[in-house]
Write a structure and sequence with these properties.
By secondary structure, this protein is of the alpha+beta class. Helices cover about 60% and strands about 10% of the residues. It has helices at about 1-25, 25-55, 65-90, 90-100, 175-190, 190-215, 235-255, 265-295, 300-325, 330-350, 360-395, 410-470, 475-515, 525-545, 565-580, 615-620, 635-645, and strands at about 105-110, 115-120, 130-135, 150, 155, 160-165, 525, 545-550, 560, 585-595, 600-605, 650-655, 660-670. Strands 8-10-11-13-12 form a five-stranded mixed β-sheet. It has a four-stranded antiparallel β-sheet with strand order 2-1-6-3, covered by helices on one side.
Length: about 675
């Protein structure tokens, strides 16, 4: 069933892929998309340049009359200069002929001393227009024309005259101004539509580009990527080829700027050239996308091939030299290199220095002798340090480097190696101790689990035997005697079962306390109150053990941050430990003492057994002062207490002095 589902999933996924590549995998579809890309790119670039020119000309911020005035001003300025030249020579008829057949008129005005205007000549009949501009005229005498008369007035030299140019807003004449005015009017009316068309064409360009990138290497009826004609060419070679052709396109576009005079024709050529360049770069991007799909980019480039071959050659050469030099001792190799350098220097001095003074030769010999001794010292020192590091790497932690003849960093490095050896020795000793403690732990756990289990098994057998024999006994006295034995055996069985249960519970709690998996809720607690409650709980039990309990507390209330439940368990473990191992007919001291910013809760008692182990070992699990292990303790109480104190941010310290056993709990005062 699962295989059938997998086959169906593969079939459906294959159908999905076929549907996805059905369009982009067709060659005709790619050609159509390319054609659409070229058309949309051409329209986009043309619209972009046109909208940019319109924006700079104020099409989107000015009125139509203002735009017409700005555009037609440049076109009519050349005719205005012709009129100005004719008037400067006094030829008013020629000036009037310039205005004939054009949608423009001119008027010459004289400014008198009072600032009043007087019309001297003009072709303007007074029609209303907002398309006008003025030019200042300043008449000067020349060799050909001495005096100029216009409108019965002799033109004065250095007088101010104004030439007004008026454009007919109806544009009745069929001239260049009419064509420009109609074009500007249409562009102004369609200025926002051009922006929308440009944006849409840009989006179409991006969409066509993405479709072509997805369709690179896809063919109808084939799910894998199919290599193209140029896939075998190295990527960097292909990039250089496409780049050179693209640079040629750009050069042709820029070169045509000085050849084509017509501004519209130049704009068309620029847009056409950029479109061809965009299509060319799209072809390159398709080839790059195909190589990315095939995973043939960096590793299939000529640079990678040359670099890889060079690196392999370099590695072989350096490896051979390294193997050759490795067989030569370090000191011999260093001395040989030094003597070789000295030999080259001597040959250079003989060949290039014509005259060598004796004092110079003596200084050269002294210098080389000093450098030789220094090099020999450095080589021997490095050899000694290398020998030490090899010895340490082989596990000889007792190896020591003689640093008496070393100086500076070499001496420090040698001492570091010696410290490393001592650290390794210490780590090995700690590891051996850990292994020993682990062995003792396994032995102790096995013993503590074996003892109650043995008792449980033995007494269970006895109960079974007594119960099986009870049916054959007919006398009542024997029946009662067997019943009493069964009760005795059951009591031992119950006691050992509880001991085993307590051991397992302590094991779980010790594991949680050590790993920090217990929930700790720290809150202000009065240490004296908790200790008093613990004393009350164990007062009777200590009297049964013939122990005199003496508790001391400070007069002031002392508060600490602790978890009352876990702190009570610490007191319970310590007092229970005292009841088990304290010497009978002795005193037990419990005290709470303030020490600057800390509070110390101290437990003191005299041990019943010789304390021949260290305090650190007593803190380990399943370690007891009772080596014979004939008591019911399991050696987990002190370990659990220490872990609980650490979880509450406190510190527990065990001190043994002869038979004196002392535990100190330290917490910070709130």
């Amino acid at each position: 069933m699962e295989e059938k589902l997998e086959v169906e999933e593969l079939y459906l996924s294959g159908r999905h892929k076929k549907k996805a590549y059905r369009f982009v995998g067709r060659m005709t579809a790619k050609i159509l998309v390319f054609f659409l890309l070229a058309i949309s790119c051409f329209i986009f670039l043309g619209g972009f340049f046109l909208c940019g020119n319109m924006l700079s000309s104020g099409f989107y911020i000015k009125s139509l009359n203002e735009v017409l005035g700005d555009v037609l001003y440049g076109e009519s300025r050349s005719a205005a200069h012709l009129i100005q030249n004719c008037l400067m020579e006094g030829d008013v008829e020629a000036a009037a002929e310039v205005c004939e057949g054009r949608n423009m008129d001119a008027e010459l005005v004289w400014l008198n001393d009072n600032g009043e205007e007087k019309v001297l000549w003009g072709t303007w009949d007074g029609y209303e227009t907002r398309l006008s501009f003025s030019m200042m005229l300043e008449f000067k005498k020349s060799d050909s024309v001495k005096e100029v008369w216009i409108g019965g007035v002799r033109m004065k030299e250095s007088s101010d005259y104004l030439l007004h140019i008026y454009l007919d807003p109806t544009f009745p004449e069929n001239d260049n101004l009419q064509v420009i005015a109609k074009l500007v009017t249409r562009l102004y009316e369609a200025r926002y539509l051009l922006v929308m068309i440009t944006v849409v064409c840009f989006l179409v360009c991006v969409l066509c580009f993405l479709v072509l990138m997805c369709g690179a290497g896809r063919r109808i009826g084939r799910e894998e990527v199919v290599p193209g004609v140029l896939t075998g060419v190295h990527l960097d070679v292909l990039t250089v080829g496409f780049g050179l052709i693209a640079i040629f396109f750009i050069f042709c576009i820029l070169k045509a700027e000085g050849i084509i005079d017509n501004e519209l024709l130049w704009l068309f050529w620029e847009v056409f050239g950029l479109t061809v360049l965009a299509v060319w770069l799209t072809i390159y991007c398709m080839e790059l996308a195909l190589r990315l799909k095939l995973g043939r980019c960096w590793r299939h480039s000529l640079i990678y091939v040359i670099t890889s071959w060079s690196w392999k050659f370099f590695c072989r050469v350096t490896g051979g030299i390294g193997r050759l030099l490795k067989g030569i001792p370090t000191v011999v190799m260093s001395v040989g290199i030094f003597l070789g350098i000295c030999l080259f220097e001597l040959i250079g001095i003989i060949l290039f220095v014509r005259r060598v003074e004796s004092i110079f030769g003596l200084l050269w010999v002294v210098e080389k002798g000093f450098l030789f001794l220094l090099l020999l010292y450095l080589a021997l020192t490095c050899k000694r340090l290398l020998r030490a590091s090899r010895a340490l790497s082989e596990g000889r932690e007792d190896y020591r480097v003689d640093t008496s003849m070393m100086f500076g960093d070499f001496k420090e490095h040698g001492e570091n190696l010696n410290s490393l050896g001592m650290g390794i020795s210490k780590a090995v000793a700690e590891r051996m101790k850990s292994e020993r403690l682990k062995t003792e732990l396994i032995t102790n756990v096995s013993h503590d689990l074996k003892t109650p289990l043995t008792s449980i098994i033995n007494y269970a057998d006895l109960i079974y035997e007594e119960s099986s024999c009870k049916a054959d006994e007919e006398e009542e006295q024997d029946f009662l005697a067997g019943r009493s034995k069964i009760a005795e055996y059951a009591e031992v069985l119950l006691r050992q079962s509880r001991r085993l249960k307590k051991l397992l519970e302590d094991l779980v709690e010790a594991s949680k306390a050590t790993t920090g998996n217990l929930e700790v809720n720290l809150e202000p607690c009065e240490a004296g109150v908790l200790l008093t409650q613990a004393v009350g709980e164990y007062q009777k039990k200590m009297e049964e053990k013939s122990l005199e309990l003496i508790a001391r507390q400070p007069e002031d209330t002392v508060k600490i941050m602790a978890d009352g439940r876990h702190l009570w368990r610490v007191f319970d473990n310590l007092l229970n430990n005292i009841c088990k191992y304290a010497q009978e007919n002795t005193r037990v001291y419990l005290s709470v003492e303030k020490r600057e910013e800390n509070v110390q809760i101290i437990f003191r008692n005299m041990s019943q057994y010789p304390l021949d182990i260290s305090p650190e070992e007593l803190e380990e699990r399943f370690v007891r002062g009772d080596k014979s292990r004939h008591m019911e303790g399991n050696g987990l109480g002190l370990s659990i207490a220490k872990s609980l104190v650490d979880l509450q941010g406190g510190r527990m310290e065990i001190v043994t002095d002869g038979d004196l056993f002392k535990v100190t709990l330290t917490f910070r005062i709130i």
